[in-house]
Amino acid sequence: MDNGLKQLVEVSRLFGSDPSFVIAGGGNTSYKNEEKIWIKASGISLATIDENGFVSLSREKLKLISQKNYSNDPLLRENEVKADLHEAIVAPKELRPSVETSLHELISYRYVVHTHPTIVNGMMCSLEAEKTCKVMFGERALFVPYTDPGYILFKVVAEGISRYTAKHGLEPSIIFLENHGVFVGADTTEKIETIYAEIMTTIGGRLSLQLPGTETTMLKSEIIACVESLHPGYAGFKALGIKSELTDLYVVDEISFSKAKKSFTPDDIVYCKAHYLYIPAQENVTDLLTKTTEKIADYFDKYGYLPKVLALQEQGIIAIEESLKSAQNVLDVYENILKISFYSENFGGPKFMNDEQIAFIDNWEVENYRRKIAKS
Ligand SMILES: [Zn+2]
Predict the structure, then answer these.
(1) What is the number of structural domains in the chain?
(2) How far away, in angstroms, is 63 Cα from ligand 1 center?
(3) Which runs of consecutive H residues, i.e. helices, occur in the chain?
(4) Helix, strand, coil percentages for the chain (3-state, nearest 5)
């Protein structure tokens, strides 16, 4: 195995197995030499990845993508780019390279490790993301305001990098993406680790509000036992619930829950959908089931799909999915949303994705593919 690829596998596992950096299937890593870039395949988990989990692509062909003109229609454009991305694959043709491949190619450092760390997103999904980023990192990092993922994000990051490079005479090694996460680039994996440690201590040092207990207990609720009866669309679905000091903070009433009712990042939507459903407490179990059924039907009418996350007032959080494994993924990602919301209070409070940004992801086929793979 190429030594660079070997180092890539090691650094991928290191970050991938630490839940404070990577939740569920999120994050991706790459290594490049002069001709080729090796990037994590879509749907593969970083924690257990080996050299077979990476796709190699021709850098020359990837560069053509940045020079080509594509359709103005977002869906058409993403399909055209996807086809060119497929065209650039050296091996293996049957794996799909990460949707963030072009961003990795933009950064000329040999190694790139992209993650969505919880405390970084506490800052990046807050009302004061840009301001705090300037104060804490100054010229050390490039800040990119939220942009729809895919080709447009690629263009915006490309511009940001060239502006930064023109000004500083070297490329940024830290790129923060609002409502998304961070890209770290360096020529060695040791340097990647040092830079990440710097990021974590810098942001960690600014957190005056410390997270409440996250020790979870399984939630016992009638809703979980009869989830299939709540809506015909849930036939064969499974539900899992949790409760912790952290969830207690958000399910106490609807106002508290409003701070965790929507998605912060495109990845949240991939796993949990964009909107989370609050169910007020009722006098008895029969009323609770009736109320929940009603609320789910209203939600379905409004959004055209069923909720995956229910917040039961005074009880806890329930995830509903096709299997127990995918329900657990939803819980993990949603619990992380609660943490991000909590940390964001250090930086002016939570900033969710807006409706237009959500609609773009909901319509995006690439993300649907990831959803499919993440479940299998
Ligand atoms: Zn990402």
Answers:
(1) 2
(2) 21
(3) 3-16, 59-67, 74-87, 101-106, 118-124, 129-137, 151-168, 189-204, 222-225, 245-251, 254-257, 266-272, 285-303, 324-344, 355-362, 365-375
(4) 50, 15, 30
347 and 126 Cβ atoms separated by less than 8 Å: yes
Residue 287 lies in a domain: yes
Q: Residue 94: inside a domain, yes or no? A: yes
pLDDT tens-digit readout, 245-285: 999 999 999 999 999 999 999 989 989 999 999 999 999 99
Q: Residue 293 in contact with residue 220, Cβ under 8 Å?
A: no
Determine the distance separating the centroid of ligand 1 and the alpha carbon of 248, expressed in angstroms.
29
Model pTM?
0.93
Q: Which of 1-5, 95-99, 152-156 has the highest mean pLDDT?
A: 152-156
- Where do we find the tokens 């949990």? 272
Give the Å distance between the CA of 281 and the centre of ligand 1. 36
- Cα 284 to ligand 1 centre (Å): 43
Same domain, 199 and 222: no
CA of 26 to the centre of ligand 1 (A): 7
Residue 283 lies in a domain: yes
Centre of ligand 1 from the C-alpha of residue 239, in Å: 27
What residues form DSSP beta bridges with 177?
144, 181
